[in-house]
Write a structure and sequence with these properties.
By secondary structure, the chain is an alpha/beta fold. It has 14 helices and 27 strands. Pathway: Nitrogen metabolism; nitrate reduction (assimilation).
Length: 481
Amino acid sequence: MTRNVVIVGYGMAGARLADEIRRRDPRAERVSVTVLGDEAHPAYNRVLLSSVVAGSLSPEAVRLHDADWAAKHHVDLRLGGGVSKIDRTRRVVHVGDTEVPYDSLVLATGARSWVPPTEGLLDGNGDLAPGVVAFRSLDDCARIVNAASPGTPVAVLGGGLLGLEAARGLAGRGCLVTVVHPVGHLMERQLDRGAGRVLAKTLESLGIEFRLGALASKYLPGDGLLLDDGTQVPAELVVVSAGVRAETGLAAEAGIAVDRGILVDDALRTSDPRVHAIGDCAQHVGTVSGLVQPAWEQAAVVADLVTGTAPASRYSGTTVVTRLKARDVDLAALGDVHCEVDDPDAEVLCFQDPARGRYAKLVLRDDKVTGAIVLGAPDAAAAITQLFDRGLPAPTDRLALLLGRALPAENEASPADLPASAVVCRCNTVSKGQIVSAWRAGATTVSSIAEKTRASTGCGGCKDAVCGIVDWLAASQPQPV
């Protein structure tokens, strides 16, 4: 008999889990899959939403699944109806008047935008006021684009990763953008103060203004934001990107343990062993919230477990590399970025060239990269990321590495030497093995690889690596039939 696996949430985590389950059980012989999504359209890649705002990608181009995906993969997909209740005693979830039974339940409910307690941002019903839009979903993108004609003054609340991506996209559309951020420098979670300053200078050269260390105290519809220092930021549109909060309400109402997120162990089990949680709604000690790579690695673990493919599979955390996906800006941050130069247990090097938009910081311990910030130096970012991912010793010429002039040894950098599990495209978490599989299935060009796997369709930083793998395959592998 098949087991009923119900996935609550059809975002990037839920969609990936369904794919992973069907990769292990393609004919639904062991597991039946039901996916419950509250949005009315197919799953899409949230990582690429800033490209939709910028106009470089259409909404259709960021879809994760086509219209007939569910039928082709034996998935019962139900859209446009949110789950109202989990009955753990009877093992059913309620969707409107319908009960959906489960043997295993996976919560992939994601996160919701956090709206600062600024007077006027919400109307009397608790909804966003006219002229205020969150930046979280594909529908949000449509609202932003509809309101953002060239010359429109726009205020972006939040100078984190998503806020800056939205700001760059809007500036590219000709909007007059001001970013309001309560901290003294941008992206404080991923960058140190020096890198934040250089990034702000780079973005200012692209037409974006900043009000750092300032709080919005009041929203004046049609006029903009009044700041706590008494000044005003003109804005006909306010885009809120001030952070997110995990969607834990459904779990909490069902008596499942929650904190900042839904608490899970290394098997991604909640306090109810029949219920798992993955993605932004889950809280695991090794997880960095707000990034897609942990969600996709968690999906693989849960798929191993619910299909019985690998009962010992466990999630031990994710080492992530953060990239800012904004046109004309190349930024990567990884590992321990806040280590100080005078740390006695680390070797820390720093290079700054603000006039040319370049900043590089490298943190090494025992001759290996444990942290880095690289802005405006894509060759250095590629080399340092490879060293970080693979745990390779850094070249002895540290300055050359910081400047992008020292690469890992040729045999180490060769596509043939990369393990199949090596992540090539971090925006879409595409491994070398997936590219090889797609090539053998007939995708023999970079464009067809991109269409099949989405590798290189995010920030574009992996395009050279994808080209190298395709060239290596063409030279060394039998041509696919």
